[in-house]
Amino acid sequence: MSTVLVTGAARGLGLDFTKRYAARGWKVLACARKPDALKDIEGDIHPHSLEVTDYEAVKALARKLSGEAIDVLICNAGIGGSRGEGAQSLGSLDPKVWREVFEVNTLAPLMMAEAFADHVARSRQRKLIAISSILGSIANNNGGRYFYRASKSALNMEWNCLARDLAGKNVICVALHPGWVQTDMGGSGAPLTIEQSVPGMIRVIDGLELSDNGRYLQYDGTELAW
Ligand SMILES: NC(=O)c1ccc[n+]([C@@H]2O[C@H](COP(=O)([O-])OP(=O)(O)OC[C@H]3O[C@@H](n4cnc5c(N)ncnc54)[C@H](OP(=O)(O)O)[C@@H]3O)[C@@H](O)[C@H]2O)c1
After folding, report:
1. Structural domain of residue 194, as residue ranges?
2. CA 226/CA 171 separation, integer angstroms
């Protein structure tokens, strides 16, 4: 049996990852701020309460799960940050929003990766996945959304470093863009449904091999330019 850990597991893309991996018979370590929302899902689901920016809680969970081998760790929890009154636009940048966005999107995934690297390294599949965004691509940039874009660019750099630093343990580190998807974050005008995005990402994750370590891919397997 394979094991996946998902953060932000009770809503949006994270909830769909949880349901789909459970339906495939995987053991799912489903981490969420409100894990009660997960109790009616069928399958081998183990809900854990986790605010990803509570780093003592992250370390405590890693200790609690010290016997686990985690085949796939998906750092999915993320925030868009306020767009109100141009908080992320040049001319009205709000530093408070920068700190919030970087804390959740950039620092928390790295602290998760550090805490759980050994759990992943001792598994059979050894896959460490960051749910990033094409908005973090400098090559594809068209401006605006300063904080969100920068938080995902920095996340990409972290995963690029992890790919090098964990290569000796044969861990496969990949940054994945889900596409622009109809979730609370993506909004109803997004071109993709969750049902198009998440199965695509799972196919990509299933197919990852050691030679994919350090890649930046989107939900359909297309390579993205950094
Ligand atoms: N949707 C898109 O178009 C799109 C595009 C590119 C990238 N992404 C990325 O995909 C990931 C998932 O986004 P989504 O579209 O599913 O967004 P969403 O529907 O807004 O869900 C965000 C998830 O992150 C969790 N979360 C946020 N802050 C957290 C914290 N401090 N601690 C623990 N959990 C936290 C939320 O938990 P609560 O329910 O407790 O708030 C929720 O489960 C994010 O990393 C996002 O940047 C999304």
Report:
1. 3-218
2. 21
- Percent pLDDT > 90 in the chain is 96
Residue 39 sits in a domain whose CATH number is 3.40.50.720
- Contact of 102 with 47, CB cutoff 8 Å: no
CA distance 1 to 84: 45
This prediction's pTM:
0.98
Please check the confidence at residue 217 and state whether its pLDDT lies above 80: yes
Which whole number is the average pLDDT over 186-202?
97
Q: What Rg, from alpha-carbon coordinates, does the chain have?
A: 16
Q: Which two tokens stand for residue 61?
A: 């969970």
Q: Is residue 121 part of a domain?
A: yes
Number of domains in the chain: 1
Which residue of 17, 20, 33, 135 sits with most ligand 1 atoms within 8 Å of its CB, as the best mutation to test the pocket? 33
Residues with CB under 6 A from ligand 1: 7-8, 10-14, 32-34, 51-53, 76-79, 104, 131, 133, 177-178, 180-181, 183-186, 190
